[in-house]
Specification:
By secondary structure, the chain is mainly α. The chain has seven helices and no strands. It has helices at 2-23, 35-52, 57-63, 69-78, 83-92, 96-100, 107-119. The chain is extended and about 70 Å long. The mean pLDDT is 89.
């Protein structure tokens, strides 16, 4: 009985992941997405970039110095990749400048800091 329930649960999880993947597009905005959905959108965007460059997954993985072609293939399919490998992917796409801008102080934060310094 428990094997049957486990099988149903696994089937349900597979269906949920497929449904999630089908509702997302490379243009999906992050504001209302879950963490997993954001990861999938980034993977979809990476896939589109790779395809526009006419590269196979294995060719791209080698160019990005990933440990195996499976690493990149899994990323495109599941949206999951280590931070180091994500940086390698971004470097290979020539998009490091986008990563460089992440988590820098916002313009608002910089203005507030300057105003605090001026008040002193």
């Amino acid at each position: 009985m428990s094997n049957e329930l486990l099988k149903k649960l696994q089937d349900s999880q597979v269906k949920a992941k497929k449904k999630l993947k089908n509702k997302l597009s490379p243009n999906s905005a992050f504001g209302t997405l879950t963490d997993e959905e954001i990861a999938m959108v980034l993977a979809l965007r990476a896939k589109n970039l790779r395809l526009s460059a006419n590269k196979k997954q294995s060719e791209f993985a080698k160019e990005a110095s990933l440990s195996s072609p499976t690493t990149y293939s899994n990323y495109e399919q599941k949206g999951s990749i280590s931070m180091i490998n994500f940086i390698k992917v971004m470097r290979t796409f020539g998009r490091l400048e986008e990563l460089e801008k992440l988590l820098l102080p916002t313009t608002k934060q910089m203005i507030e800091k300057l105003e605090k310094q001026r008040v002193k």
